[in-house]
């Protein structure tokens, strides 16, 4: 069964850090671009915002302007896992984060074939 398994959800104070993991099962993440999307509280499924996309051919990461300088993405190939490291978190970063995979980066989550189950991130003041 092909799936993305996420871990790392949590509650953190503003200014803190959190790392989300996305592990491939039945698919080699090295063969895909990996994206991260966020669904903020009160927003519907169609309003999930793109946070990042990491190309597999050169590991270049495109970051949303709201997270530049604070979020980074890395791959651990031996574990078939991609990490979203989130530093200096702000209350507006709160939401459910989804990792996704497909052949190319897209601006909408619906453009991706494979999705993780989502991870809740809550940032308090």
Describe what is shown at a glance.
This protein is 0% helix and 49% strand. 32% of the residues are buried.
Count of distinct strands: 11
Instruction: Output the structural class.
Output: mainly beta
Q: State the shape.
A: globular
Number of helices: 0
Largest sheet, in brief, is: 7 strands, mixed
Beta-strand content: over 45%
Runs with pLDDT <50, length 5+? none
Helix content: under 10%
What's the SSE pattern? EEEEEEEEEEE
Overview of this protein structure:
By secondary structure, this protein is mainly β. The protein has no helices and eleven strands. Strands 2, 4, 5, 6, 9, 10 and 11 form a seven-stranded mixed β-sheet that branches. The chain has a four-stranded antiparallel β-sheet with strand order 1-3-8-7, with no helix packed on it. Strand 7 and strand 8 form a beta hairpin. The N and C termini lie far apart (40 Å). The model has no long low-confidence stretch (mean pLDDT 96).
